[in-house]
Amino acid sequence: MKQELEAMLAAMTPEVYERLATAVEIGKWPDGVALTQEQRDNCLQLVMLWQARHNDDPQHMTIGKGGEMVMKSKKQLKEEFGIEPEVTRINLH
């Protein structure tokens, strides 16, 4: 089983990874057919394993290279999206 999993991961292209990730996110295959729970579980496992090996620029709530879950703070996310902190200034004079 482990060898089969290794072979699948070795053969996965970034395009296949994207298709699996999208299928897990929306619960459907590209042709609109719904994933079964087993398919969703298996796809999610493959997506997470692929991320642990290839994700050099992990986004919020993804697995970074090396297997660590990346969780960013609100401040980090705001900086990434270029959102300036709102500061209220009151002139007292």
From TrEMBL:
Any one Pfam family here would be DUF1315
Query: InterPro entries given for it?
Result: DUF1315 (IPR009749)
What's the protein here called?
Uncharacterized protein
